[in-house]
Amino acid sequence: MMMMMMMMMMMILMMMMMMVTMMMNVIVMMIMLTDVDLQEAMDMLKSSIPLKNEVYGDYSEVVSDTYKLMASIHLAEGSIEKSLRCYKKVSWLRKSGMKWTF
Hints:
102 residues; mainly alpha; 4 helices; 83% helix
C-alpha cells in the first residue's frame, strides 16, 4: 500500500516536471515571437537543460529541441558560430539517442 502511494506520488511529480518544462518552452517561444530580449530567452533555455536532462534523459528529443531553439536565437542575433555549435550538439544528441522515431 505504502509502495503504491509512493509510486503514484513519483508519477505525479514526473508529470508536473514535464508540464513545467513544456511551459518553459512555450514561454521562450512567446518571447522569441514578440521580439523581446533574446538573451532572456537564451538564459531560460540554458537553465532548463539540467532539469530536462534529469526528467527526459541526456539524449532525449526534448533536450535536442532545446538546443535547436538556442541555435535559432543565436542565428537571430547573427552569431553563426554559436548557432553552428548548438546544431552540432543537436546532431550529436540525435546520433547518441538513435531510438527516436521520425
